[in-house]
Write a structure and sequence with these properties.
Strand content: under 5%
Distance between the termini: 39 Å
Structural class: mainly alpha
Number of strands: 2
Largest sheet: 2 strands, antiparallel
Number of helices: 6
Shape: elongated
Number of domains: 2
Length: 130
């Protein structure tokens, strides 16, 4: 169930975070395009709240997409280029995410199969991942 959207542009992070992440991106775009130098306090706060929620959402989403790229055969250099991160940071974010997901139990099964993670690690080569 999707939470109820705030009635106007959110001026608080907690309110912005309740917006569907994809709608949030559209709202941030639309708000930034419409904002002028004469826009007031609430407009500036709304842009801050929207952008902070986008960053928070993406920070949680990015490791999943790194994993998806690795599963699809991308190498670390490609992912580093796509994210603007150093290879070590790509590995760090992916590893931290996989460590949690392989321990997370959903209905008696891990959220992420450790064997699939090991297969990616083997493809990446020794010493790269740990």
């Amino acid at each position: 169930m999707t939470p109820t959207r705030p009635t106007g542009p959110p001026v608080r992070f907690d309110d912005a975070e309740q917006i569907n992440p994809f709608e949030l991106l559209i709202d941030l775009h639309d708000h930034a395009v419409a904002r002028t130098a004469a826009s007031g306090r609430d407009d500036a706060l709304a842009e801050l709240a929207l952008s902070a929620a986008v960053v928070s959402w993406w920070t949680r989403w990015q490791p999943l997409m790194i994993h998806a790229a690795l599963r699809a055969g991308a190498d670390l250099a490609d992912i580093a280029d796509a994210t603007g991160l150093e290879i070590g940071e790509v590995v760090h974010r992916w590893r931290r995410w996989t460590d949690v997901q392989t321990r997370l139990d959903i209905g008696g099964r891990p959220a992420l199969d450790a064997a699939k993670v090991r297969a990616i690690e083997e493809r990446l080569g020794p010493g790269v991942v740990r």
